[in-house]
Amino acid sequence: MKAARYSRFGGPEVLEIVDLPEPHAGPGLIRVAVRAVSVNATDWKLRKGLHGGELPQTTGREVAGVVDEVGAGVTDVAVGDRVFGVSPDGSGAAERALLSHYAPIPPSLGFAEAAVLPVAIETATRGLDALGVGAGSTLLVNGATGGVGSAAVQLAVARGARVIGTASPRNHEYLRSLGAEPVAYGEALAERVRALAPDGVDVALDIAGSGVLPELIELAGSPEHVVTLADFAGAQEYGVRFSRGDDGRALHALAEIGALIESGRFSLPVEQTFLLAEIAEAHRVSENGHVRGRLALLVG
Fold this sequence. Notes:
By secondary structure, the chain is of the alpha/beta class. The strands form 3 sheets. Strands 3, 5, 6, 7, 8, 15 and 16 form a 7-stranded mixed beta sheet that branches. The chain has a 6-stranded parallel beta sheet with strand order 11-10-9-12-13-14, with helices on both faces. A 3-stranded antiparallel beta sheet has the order 2-1-4, with no helix packed on it. The mean pLDDT is about 95.
């Protein structure tokens, strides 16, 4: 089967399309004929060697496709079902992939739209769960317009929370369309937030990792009311919780997102699609960082 792989760390040019043996579904796993796979920051950080690991490496963790093989013990899907989910070994950018956690693709979505869901909704849900966001909460999201940020905003609004989100002025109208109250990031952030919420906020979720943890702590009243998904050093310095999934992942979100999507209360737009052979260009676009929607590779 055709698959994307790299044999050395480096820029997008190290990616190549190679022939690899097809995987087979072991116990508890399913195999899909891949139709789409997302490209996100984790993919190019791994490709650059920022997280180490042995070489060669495959790529692609978020997958959508059609089930074509079911492992022992799997009873919740059948061959022919459309599903999206997570490739446990990051081998999704291929014609066939194994999935460990998955859910039915919502009827209104195509494969590309489904492929970009897993990481954003799991990460956002994990942060919201850690903060106990629910009806009546006032949440500040720092970095509210990327994939994880826009997911966190929509999921928090669906829980009944009031959401204030930081973004550049050009993205303020987009944030309003998601149900959040926008504020500009940068110097005097706390003053702008207090203009909207004079008593501060109940909790704050840092997705951007832009060095604003002291302001978030001030606004939320305590380090215990702040979670960061991006600033490990700042979390250690200021006593804030840092979440990268080591304490458990919120994979329940995959099965729950369909109802929100079908009711029109959640969406993650796909900004651009590429063919599998164009994966290097997709990585370049992702790494440039000027994408509001998500990126997906079309396979098969």
